[in-house]
Design a protein that fits this description.
It contains 13 helices and eleven strands. It is α/β, with parallel strands linked by helices and 355 residues long. It has two domains: 166 residues, 3-Layer(aba) Sandwich (Rossmann fold), CATH 3.40.50; 171 residues, Dehydroquinate synthase-like, alpha domain (Up-down Bundle), CATH 1.20.1090. Helix 6 packs parallel to helix 10. Bound molecules: nicotinamide-adenine-dinucleotide. Nicotinamide-adenine-dinucleotide (NAD) binds next to helix 2, helix 4, helix 5, helix 6 and helix 10.
Length: 355
């Protein structure tokens, strides 16, 4: 078990990382009046464990599983149930689930009575390696992913990889998507992944969660509110990931992150800012985790990138992998972005095993 302490001007909180942290810390961290937010699948798997550790009969809101849960209607239901359960200003909201539950529970905690204590217990690889820290909360709005939200850091986090035993292969792949994203800004991590024969197993995931959270913590501490340009690197691949996610709506967030990293590295390559050798290495890593990410009609999906939060003018902003351990900001007109996505997708069409 290891700890990461995150200190920013607005908050200081501890992440308890490692196998067994849930049993060790949950009952210490969660006391007094509390309200659990989870989703249908996670609660079905772990309700007996929760009852065992926290006692039976606590108020809980069960969201639908998956991205559809990230709606205003659902946010309203959460707040309504908190009110009905008599939650006071000194209550604790406990997020128990993946990144969707975490983003929604954080937003509910931030809004209820102008802010109540918030504890994150992430249960997916993606949520443990990435979304459980940094304080970004979100709900989709107007058809745009994560358009509305707040910065609201948790008071404590428990990241216990024992929850991964029930994850599907797809959810493991999604977690690896954000882990590879971290590797695009961390040379050592890139090397570790390249040299690892099998990107799976309890010890491997436990190590990855600690490495990725340590990296994210160091970045968030320098640019808590994403205003200084430092935190942007955590968004590599995400302009295209969010555009594809909004347009296709078939795969999961982490799979779109993998695709986004590939397409944005390709854009950088064609613009002459990513070197060929690094592109091939990144491609090999991504293709170890997913089939060639071919998508049809990418020009139409490209238009969804016009609403990306990083855009400052009519150009599309992408944070693309450019060399070992480094991502760079590229601003290009929609027509150029769209043409390069199309070229990339045409090349992938012929790849063996394109998905
Ligand atoms: N706030 C941030 O900084 C941040 C960062 C990255 C991603 N995100 C958000 O995170 C979301 C994606 O997170 P996610 O991939 O965890 O998705 P998710 O929360 O939808 O979880 C994926 C699926 O796994 C199931 N699940 C969760 N834990 C499980 C377990 N232990 N065993 C079995 N099944 C389990 C869920 O029911 C769901 O069906 C996106 O909405 C994305 O925008 C937020």
């Amino acid at each position: 078990m290891k700890e990461i302490v995150i200190k920013t001007s607005a908050a200081e909180y501890t992440v308890h990382c490692g196998g067994g942290t849930f049993s060790k810390y949950a009952s210490q961290i969660i006391s007094g009046q509390f309200f659990v937010i989870s989703d249908r699948d996670v609660f079905a798997y772990y309700r007996y464990l929760l009852w065992d550790v926290l006692g039976e009969g606590f108020p809980v809101y069960i969201m639908p599983s998956g991205e559809t849960g990230k709606s205003f209607a659902n946010l309203k239901c959460i707040l309504t149930e908190m009110l009905k359960a008599g939650m006071r200003r000194d209550c604790t909201v406990v997020s128990f689930g993946g990144g969707v539950v975490g983003d929604m529970a954080g937003l509910a905690a931030a809004l209820y009575m102008r802010g109540v204590r918030f504890v994150q217990i992430p249960t997916t690889l993606l949520a443990q390696a990435d979304s459980c820290i940094g304080g970004k909360t979100a709900v989709d709005f107007g058809g745009i992913k994560n358009l509305v939200g707040t910065f609201y850091p948790p008071a404590e986090v428990i990241a216990d990889p024992r929850f991964f035993s029930t994850l599907s292969d797809r959810d493991i792949r999604c977690g690896l998507g954000e882990i590879i994203k971290c590797a695009t800004i961390d040379e050592d991590l890139f090397g570790v992944l390249e040299n690892c024969k099998d990107l799976s197993g309890f010890d491997f995931f436990e190590d990855m969660v600690f490495r990725c959270l340590s990296l994210k913590a160091s970045i968030v501490q320098q640019d808590e509110f994403d205003l200084k340009g430092i935190r942007k690197v955590l968004n590599s691949g995400h302009t295209t990931a969010h555009a594809f996610e909004g347009y296709y709506r078939k795969k999961s967030h982490g799979e779109y992150v993998l695709a986004g990293l590939y397409y944005e590295a390709y854009i950088a390559l064609k613009l002459g800012v990513c070197d060929e050798e690094y592109f091939e290495r990144l491609k090999n890593l991504i293709f170890r985790v997913m089939k060639a990410p071919f998508f049809p009609e990418v020009e139409k999906a490209a238009e969804a990138a016009l609403s990306d939060k990083k855009n400052r003018d009519a150009n599309i902003c992408v944070i693309a992998p450019v060399s070992l351990g480094k991502c760079g900001e590229i601003r290009i007109p929609l027509q150029v972005y769209s043409r390069l996505l199309k070229e990339c997708s045409d090349e992938l069409k012929g790849e063996h095993g394109a998905c």
